[in-house]
Hints:
It is built from four helices and four strands, in the order βαβαβαβα. It is an alpha/beta fold.
Amino acid sequence: NQTLEDLYLNGNSIGDEGGIAIAAGLKENTSLKELNLGQNSIGIEGGKAIADVLKQNHTLEKLHLYRNEVGNEGAKAIADALKQNQTLKDLRLPVNSIGDEGGIA
């Protein structure tokens, strides 16, 4: 789909598997501007997959990952991806088991 701009999937417990699948879809998508994946039990692997796609995605402006479990490793991967991403304007990561190590990244 090249016309969808907003996708809200919060509260569906898609887990890492779903996070990885969403990331794979984002690699091909050129229209999505807002993605809400809050409260989905996305862990470290899902967070890393989403981070990888952020490095090459040029349309996403808002990403909400609140109340997941990306932890320090996922947060560090996302922080690294943001060094290359030029379009993301709004990133929300509250309640993700991110400690000092992930916050400093």
